[in-house]
Write a structure and sequence with these properties.
The protein is mainly alpha-helical and about 110 residues long. The chain contains five helices and two strands, in the order ααββααα.
Length: about 110
């Protein structure tokens, strides 16, 4: 199932099927990524638009394909720099990734006295 050009709104189950993600993952991402904020209808159900699905695809690529953490993906999306996630890494992207890895390693070291 893909995005239907004539359709304006999608339910969470439709978006889960389109994206290959579970609904609970989509709900979690809403809390973590301010760019993902689907509207709710009168019944309180989420109604996603095509732009929301594109954001979900970007998040999924950053997390699952490019190996970013949630914080790293959030920073990339905040900058609006999804172009940086191309297969050709940039100096800035590599630097940011190294800084992120260093921070995570420092956090791990704190676990071991």
């Amino acid at each position: 199932m893909g995005i239907d050009e004539g359709k304006l709104y999608y339910s969470i189950s439709e978006v889960a099927e389109i994206s290959g993600l579970e609904p609970y993952v989509l709900r979690f991402w809403e809390k973590e990524f301010p760019q993902l904020h689907p509207k709710k209808n009168r019944a309180g159900n989420r109604t996603y638009q095509a732009k929301d699905i594109e954001v979900i695809k970007s998040i999924k690529k950053l997390l699952y394909d490019d190996g970013f953490t949630i914080e790293g993906a959030r920073n990339i999306l905040k900058k609006g720099a999804t172009e940086e996630t191309s297969s050709e890494p940039t100096k800035e992207r590599l630097h940011n990734l190294l800084v992120e890895v260093k921070g995570e390693l420092e956090d791990l070291l704190k676990l071991f006295p």
